[in-house]
Specification:
The complex is a heterodimer of chains A (339) and B (222).
Chain A lengths: L2 H7 L1 H20 L4 H39 L6 H4 L6 H55 L6 H23 L9 E4 H11 L1 H6 L3 E5 L4 E4 L1 H17 L7 E8 L3 E8 L19 H5 L8 H12 L2 E6 L5 E8 L2 H7 L1
Parallel strand pairs in A: 2-4
Antiparallel strand pairs in A: 1-3, 4-5, 5-7, 6-7
Helix pairs in contact in A: 2-3, 5-6, 6-11, 7-9, 9-11
Chain B lengths: L1 E5 L3 H13 L3 E4 L6 H8 L3 E5 L7 H11 L4 E5 L4 H9 L4 E4 L4 H15 L8 E3 L4 E3 L4 E3 L4 E3 L2 H12 L4 E2 L1 H10 L6 H17 L6 E4 L3 E4 L1
Parallel strand pairs in B: 1-2, 1-3, 3-4, 4-5
Antiparallel strand pairs in B: 6-7, 7-8, 8-9, 10-12, 11-12
Helix pairs in contact in B: 6-8
The chains are: A alpha+beta (339), B alpha/beta (222).
C-alpha cells in the first residue's frame, strides 16, 4: 500500500470534503464574514483533513505492509492468522478475526482428512497383515503336498504377496507422518536378502549376478529399502531382453554419501521416456511392448526414497541397459545425529 | 531336535508342524494360550517358533519373560514386517525374525542357522574329512597331508555341501540353494565351471574320482 493507492481509495470523501469547504467559503463570502476568519477556517479545516488522512494512512499502512510481507515470506501461507499481530483499528481487527476463524475451520477440515487417511492407511496395514497369513499357509501347503501342486502355484502365491506388499507401501508412501526407522544397516545384508528371495526367478531366467563392494553401512529402513530394491530387481528381470543377461550390484563410499549402483544389461529406457519414469501410472514404451506394467513401482521407489532422505536416479539408454543409483547421505552430520 | 510351535492360526500351525516333521524334526504344538510360559518350559524343546499376535498375551511379552528364565532359542514369525517390530523383538531377546509369508525353505535355513549358532559344542570343524583328504574351510584349501591346493570361495562351498552330506546324492538345485544361502549368487553355468575346476584340483591330490556324477540326479562324495 502506498499513499497514491490510499488517496485513490479515498477520492470520494476527499472530494466531498473539498466541495463542502468551497461551499462554506462561498457562503461566508456572501454573508460578509471577515476575510481573515474565512482564511483561518479554510486553512484550518484543510490541515485538519490532511492530518486525519495521514494519521489513518500511517496506522493502516503498518498493518497491511506486515500482511503483505508475511504472505510473501511464509512457506505455508495459511499459517498467517497465527502470527499476525492484531491492529488497533476496527476494520483490521474484524479482518483478523475473520482470518483466524477461517484458519481454524480449515485446520479442522484438514485434520479430519488426515484422520481419514490415517484410518485408511491403518486399515490397509491391517488388511495386508491379515492376507499374509493365508499366503504363508498356502506356501506351506504347497511345500507339504508336492504331489498335488507344482512350482507355478508358488509363483502365483508370490505374485499375490508382491501385490499386497505394493498396496501396503502405496498407503505408507502418501502418509504424512513418519513411520519408518532409520538405522545403520549393511547393504550386503539387504541386497542378498532381496536376491535370495528372487532366487528361483533369477535362476530360471539365467541371469548372472555380480555383487561386489557391498560391505558398506548406510542409514536406512531395511524393510523399505528391501521393497525399493525388489521393485528395481523386478524391473531388471522383466526387461532383461536378449543377449547378455547380467545384473551388477555394487556400492561406492564417498566422503559425504554412499552410492548404491544397480546395473542391468536389459533393454533400457528410451530418452523420451526417461524424464517421466517416476510419474505415477507412467508405463512408456516398455510398458507397451507386451510386458505387464502398472507404472506404480518406480513411483513408489521415488516417494519412499524422498521420505527417507535418499536420492534415486536412473541412467539409461535404449538397448544399453539401466543403471539405478541410490544415494545415501553420510556426512559427519548424520554420524552425530545417529549416535 | 525338538521344535516348539506357537501360532494361533490352526491351519498354519499344523502345516508348520508337518513341514518340520518331514524335515526330520520332532515337533510339539503349544495351544494352551492361558499358560504358554509354563507349557514352553515343561516341553523342553530345542527351539521355539513364536507368532506375535496371540489370543491372550502378546508374543513379544512371552518372549521377554521366557528370556529371563531360559536360553531357549526363539525364532519369531510375524506378518507385521516393520523395522520397528523387528527391533522390538530383538530387544526382547528373540534370536531371529521371519516375516510372513515366508518361503518354507528359507525358514528352515534360518532355523538351522539359529540352532547351529546356539548349540554349544556342536560347532562345525574347520577341517572336514572328505575320505582320504581334508577340506580346510577357514583357509579354503584341500590337502591330504602331503599336498595342498587352494580353492575359490565357490569351490570350497560346493565341496563343503557335498562333504556335509557325505554318502548322499545332492542335486544341482540343492547345491545351488546352499551356495545362494551363503550369498554366492551363482548360475547354472558357473556351477558347471566350478565343478570342473574343483575336480581338476582334486586330481592334483590324486582324488579325481572323489566326486561322482549321478546322471540326472546330482553329485555324490563318497
Amino acid at each position: 500500500m502506498n499513499y497514491k493507492d490510499y488517496l485513490k481509495d479515498h477520492w470520494l470523501s476527499i472530494c466531498i470534503e473539498a466541495l463542502f469547504l468551497v461551499t462554506l467559503l462561498i457562503f461566508g463570502g456572501l454573508t460578509q464574514i471577515p476575510l481573515y476568519f474565512l482564511v483561518i477556517t479554510g486553512v484550518g479545516s484543510f490541515l485538519l483533513g490532511l492530518g486525519l488522512l495521514c494519521w489513518d494512512y500511517g496506522r493502516k499502512k503498518e498493518f497491511y505492509e506486515e500482511l503483505r510481507e508475511k504472505v510473501r515470506d511464509l512457506d505455508k501461507a495459511y499459517l498467517l492468522p497465527e502470527i499476525l499481530s492484531e491492529p488497533e483499528f476496527l476494520e483490521g481487527r474484524l479482518a483478523c478475526q475473520a482470518m483466524k476463524e477461517m484458519g481454524r475451520s480449515m485446520a479442522e477440515r484438514v485434520s479430519s482428512y488426515e484422520q481419514k487417511q490415517k484410518e485408511y492407511k491403518e486399515y490397509i496395514e491391517l488388511w495386508v497383515h491379515e492376507i499374509k497369513l493365508p499366503i504363508a499357509t498356502g506356501k506351506l501347503l504347497v511345500e507339504n503336498n508336492r504331489q498335488f501342486y507344482d512350482e507355478s502355484m508358488i509363483e502365483e502365491l508370490d505374485k499375490i504377496d508382491a501385490y499386497a506388499e505394493q498396496a501396503l507401501f502405496y498407503a505408507r508412501s502418501s502418509y504424512v507422518e513418519k513411520d519408518y526407522v532409520l538405522k545403520k544397516i549393511s547393504l550386503r545384508k539387504v541386497t542378498s536378502e532381496v536376491l535370495k528371495k528372487n532366487r528361483k526367478l533369477l535362476l530360471e531366467e539365467k541371469i548372472s549376478i555380480q555383487c561386489h563392494d557391498l560391505d558398506v553401512e548406510v542409514f536406512s529402513d531395511s524393510k523399505w529399502l528391501a521393497f525399493i530394491l525388489q521393485q528395481i530387481l523386478s524391473n531388471s528381470i522383466k526387461y532383461m531382453g536378449e543377449g547378455e543377461r547380467t545384473l551388477e550390484w555394487y556400492a561406492e563410499k564417498g566422503r559425504e554419501q554412499v552410492k548404491l549402483y544397480l546395473r542391468d544389461t536389459g533393454i533400457g529406457i528410451s530418452a523420451g521416456d526417461l524424464p517421466r519414469i517416476w510419474d505415477k501410472g507412467f508405463t512408456g514404451e516398455n510398458g507397451r511392448i507386451g510386458k505387464k506394467s502398472t507404472g506404480i513401482g518406480l513411483y513408489l521407489c521415488k516417494k519412499l526414497c524422498e521420505k527417507m532422505g535418499h536420492r534415486i536416479e536412473i541412467v539409461s539408454a535404449r538397448g544399453r541397459g539401466c543403471m539405478v543409483i541410490i544415494r545415501f547421505p553420510l556426512g559427519s552430520m548424520t554420524e552425530e545425529i545417529f549416535q | 531336535m525338538k521344535l516348539l510351535i506357537i501360532e494361533d492360526d490352526d491351519k498354519l500351525r499344523t502345516e508348520l508342524a508337518r513341514f518340520f516333521s518331514m524335515e526330520g524334526y520332532e515337533t510339539e504344538e503349544l495351544t494352551d494360550y492361558e499358560n504358554l510360559e509354563e507349557s514352553v518350559l515343561k516341553a523342553h524343546g530345542d527351539l521355539l517358533l513364536l507368532d506375535i499376535g496371540l489370543p491372550v498375551n502378546d508374543g513379544k511379552f512371552l518372549c521377554r519373560s521366557l528370556r529371563k528364565k531360559t536360553s531357549l532359542p526363539i525364532v519369531i514369525i510375524t506378518s507385521q514386517d516393520t523395522e520397528m517390530n523387528e527391533l522390538l523383538c530383538m530387544n526382547y531377546g528373540a534370536d531371529d525374525f521371519m516375516a510372513k509369508p515366508f518361503n518354507p525353505q528359507i525358514l528352515l535355513a534360518h532355523v538351522e542357522a539359529v540352532l547351529k549358532r546356539t548349540m554349544a559344542g556342536n560347532r562345525e570343524d574347520d577341517k572336514i574329512e572328505c575320505g582320504g583328504f581334508w577340506l580346510d574351510v577357514s583357509r579354503s584349501t584341500i590337502g591330504d597331508g602331503r599336498q595342498e591346493a587352494e580353492l575359490t570361495k565357490n569351490e570350497s562351498r560346493i565341496l563343503f555341501s557335498l562333504a556335509r552330506n557325505r554318502g548322499k546324492i545332492l542335486s544341482r538345485d540343492q547345491i545351488m540353494n546352499d551356495l545362494w544361502d551363503s550369498e554366492l549368487f551363482v548360475d547354472d553355468n558357473t556351477l558347471t565351471v566350478n565343478m570342473t575346476r574343483l575336480r581338476a584340483k582334486l586330481e592334483l591330490l590324486g582324488k579325481a574320482q572323489a566326486i561322482k556324477t549321478k546322471r540326472g540326479q546330482g553329485y555324490l562324495l563318497e
